[in-house]
Specification:
The structure holds two protein chains of two kinds.
Chain A lengths: L6 E5 L8 H12 L3 E4 L6 H10 L4 E6 L4 H14 L6 E6 L6 H6 L4 E3 L5 H11 L5
Parallel strand pairs in A: 1-2, 1-3, 3-4, 4-5
Chain B lengths: L8 H21 L29 H5 L22 E2 L2 E2 L4 H13 L5 E4 L2 H4 L23 H7 L10 E4 L4 H14 L9 E3 L4 H7 L6 H18 L3 E2 L1 E4 L1 H5 L4 H22 L3 H4 L3 E7 L3 H22 L5 H4 L3 E5 L12 H14 L4 E3 L12 H16 L14 H24 L2 H6 L2 H18 L25 H17 L2 H16 L5 H9 L4 H12 L9
Parallel strand pairs in B: 1-10, 2-3, 3-4, 4-5, 5-6, 7-8, 8-9, 9-10
Helix pairs in contact in B: 3-5, 6-21, 8-10, 10-12, 10-16, 12-14, 12-16, 14-15, 20-21, 20-22
Classes of the chains: A alpha/beta, B alpha/beta.
């Protein structure tokens, strides 16, 4: 048993190496009482979804700064569906233009946090919107 | 300023009297919030600096004149009176055709040098048809796979007149070889081309994370470029030792300074190990720093950097030629300081940061565009960024006098403290056995992650105010941004496909084999890489052959 803690996978799709934000979020969510797993850099959609399944997480946070979100995020969402785990909440952050957000919502990304979002906001959002999966 | 020695007790007495009777009392009555006054790096700053802070200050030893050791006031005697800094906007997106057009635009509007941003597949040494390149083609920079792309990138740009900086690290030797080959096709000798390859792998392991090979072969490849460059491409800066990315990853100003200079020391040591002569290769080493928001801290950082490097070269490496002792540097304003909220405010942030770079004596400068928290810059945004530099150069008057902040009690004290604290870090890393060892221990990585975390917490507790983000918030309309659609990727992939079909594939295979053999025999690889690129072997093919010999670096996953 993994206990009652909500489990969060912080994942870095895309080729960029900018992990400052991802790491700060990992530490902050851990301090906020979540169980945090970090994938490390440059994970493919397959690797991310496999990690989400293996680690039995309740929420996946995607951090990307390379500009490839419109191509990579749909692949991740499709794979989650394919594996029957599309009840995992998916949130995102990074360098993402406002105008891409409607598209990301359409494919099932629950929330996109833009630069300047506080780690508290993210922790609060998870608390309010994510329940332990059955 | 003569040698200041405030042995005169009355100054001390007067100061403490002023502090207790005037300052402290007035502050108690003041309505402003009692806040800690620290720099953005968390360093405490006093309310006032006086000659008392510069006890024992020796003008000739600590500052001297511009162009004189230890170069605190600048590496050239004339500084911007002799020549302005190079205005060099980092730029690249979409296909080689798209970026070539942008370069011509920038050059026609007064930019004085080029700076190439490659897309991530190029930075990672894979071709655009690699599965990992999906969605990345032309997004973060220009897509370059082979000499064919490079020829288009510099089409109608005279490489004997324009200097070019290329932000490329793990595959730097290959892109440099492509540039040399393009120059030769233009009839320009490698002896006259000038520019810079970033080629700084240490800060990749530390901060930016676009590494490919493990440290040892990576360092070997870099020393190859030093050796080749000093003989064959003498006007080229074979490395740009970079603090920029270290700072962006969250370091303090002192950490940026210390880790960058210690990286510099590491490169020199590895080159000496090969048997290279300090006097021959060190003059082609250059540096690259960040200009962040905290104005005086940044100015002090640049001044301290020059002083420490001069001393390191003179004392530690016994370099005689003054060109070895010059810390020449490029500066870029801080990307992470830009905010998505009320993005037009970013123009002001960039102006303040750029001013710090100029008052710090930078040799070249990139100013960020206001829209870069959303996407690569639009033409309008990049024009404002370039104009910011031109306004500083031509309207502000700050270039009239060399090192105008020199002699400020505050700036001199801060410069001294920067130097002291950076040297402490350098000593620590020396004790660990050097930077490669420190990286293997995860030391700089952890220091940076800790600083990034502390800063984020300070922002969230409102100990640090970011205008428009944790104070003075308001709604704003979305701004127009540059969109790179997938047509650029299609066009680019068609060319890659054509190149692979029409080149002499037997010749490619032969040259790749020669390269692999040379890599196994530990020869200098530059001539072999040059032969490969001339056959239109792709970057991915060349790097794959080296991956087979050297293996790939796996970073431990930590946070």
């Amino acid at each position: 048993m993994t206990g009652e803690k909500i489990r969060v996978l912080v994942a870095k799709p895309g080729l960029d190496g900018h992990d400052r934000g991802a790491k700060v979020i990992c530490r902050s969510l851990r301090d906020a009482g979540y169980e945090v797993i970090y994938t490390g850099l440059r994970r493919t959609p397959d690797e991310i979804v496999n990690a989400a399944v293996q680690e039995d997480v309740d929420v996946v946070g995607l951090s990307i700064l390379s500009g490839a979100h419109n191509v990579l995020f749909p692949k991740i969402m499709d794979l989650l569906k394919e594996k029957g785990v599309d009840d995992i909440a998916v949130i995102a952050g990074g360098i993402i233009p406002d105008k891409d957000i409607p598209f990301l919502e359409k494919i099932g990304i629950s929330k996109t946090f833009l630069p300047g979002s506080s780690t508290q906001e993210i922790a609060d959002w998870i608390k309010e919107n994510v329940r332990k999966r059955q | 300023m003569k040698k200041i020695s405030p042995s005169d007790g009355s100054l001390k007495q007067s100061f403490y009297h002023w502090k207790a009777e005037k300052y402290d009392k007035a502050l108690k009555k003041a309505s402003s919030k009692k806040m800690e006054h620290t720099t953005i790096s968390g360093k405490k700053i006093k309310e006032l600096y006086t000659p008392l802070d510069l006890d024992g200050f020796d003008y000739m030893k600590q500052l001297n004149f511009p162009g004189e050791y230890p170069y605190t006031r600048g590496i050239h005697p004339t500084m911007y009176r002799g020549r302005l800094w190079t205005m060099r906007q980092f730029s690249g997106f979409g296909t080689a055709e798209d970026t070539n057009k942008r370069y011509k635009y920038l050059l026609s509007h007064g930019q004085t040098g080029l700076s190439v941003a490659f897309h991530l597949p190029t930075l990672m040494g894979i071709d655009s048809d690699h599965p990992l390149a999906q969605g990345e083609i032309g997004k973060c920079g220009v897509a370059i796979d082979s000499l064919a792309d490079m020829e288009i990138l510099f089409n109608e740009i005279p490489l004997d007149k324009i200097s070019t900086s290329m932000t490329i690290n793990a595959p730097a030797a290959v892109l440099w070889a492509m540039y040399i080959a393009v120059a030769e096709k233009q009839g320009v000798s490698p002896k006259v081309i000038s520019g810079t390859i970033q080629n700084d792998i240490l800060k990749e392991y530390i901060a930016q994370k676009t590494f490919i090979f493990p440290p040892e072969p990576s360092m070997k490849l870099i020393v190859d470029t030093f050796e080749y460059g000093s003989k064959e491409v003498p006007k080229w800066n074979t490395i740009s030792i970079s603090g920029y990315h270290i700072r962006e990853a969250g370091s303090t100003a002192v950490q940026e300074l210390a880790f960058t200079l210690r990286d510099g020391i590491e490169y020199v040591e590895w080159a000496l190990e090969r048997g290279l002569d300090v006097e021959e290769f060190v003059p082609r080493l250059s540096f690259f720093f960040n200009a962040h928001n905290d104005f005086f801290e940044e100015v002090a950082k640049f001044r301290a950097a020059r002083k420490i490097w001069a001393e390191v070269m003179k004392e530690r490496f016994k370099a005689k030629d003054q060109r070895c002792r010059w810390l020449r540097f490029h500066t870029q304003t801080s990307g992470v300081s830009l905010m998505a909220q009320q993005p037009y405010n970013n123009v002001v942030r960039v102006a303040i940061q750029a001013l710090a770079a100029v008052l710090g004596g930078s040799q070249s400068l990139h100013t960020n565009s206001l829209d870069e928290t959303y996407a690569l810059p639009s033409e309008e945004a990049v024009t404002i960024a370039l104009r910011t530099q031109q306004i500083i150069a031509h309207e502000s008057g700050v270039i009239n006098c060399i090192d105008p902040l020199g002699g400020s009690y505050f700036v001199e004290k801060l410069t001294d403290e920067m130097e002291r604290d950076a040297k402490e870090y350098i000593r620590k890393i020396d004790d660990m056995g050097g930077m490669v060892k420190a990286i293997e221990l995860g030391f700089p990585q952890k220091e940076i992650a800790d600083s990034a975390y502390l800063y984020q917490k300070a922002v969230e507790k409102k100990e640090k105010i970011i205008v428009g983000v944790n104070d003075y918030e308001m709604e704003h309309e979305p701004i127009p941004t540059l969109k790179i659609d997938e047509t650029a990727a299609k066009q680019h992939l068609t060319r890659l496909h054509d190149v692979k079909k029409t080149r002499n594939n037997a010749q490619v295979a032969e040259k790749i084999l020669d390269l692999k053999k040379a890599a196994s025999d530990e020869q200098n690889l530059m001539p072999y890489i040059l032969s490969c690129v001339k056959t239109y072997a792709t970057l991915g093919e060349i790097m794959d052959s080296l991956r087979e010999v050297y293996g790939e670096y796996q970073e431990p996953v930590k946070y």
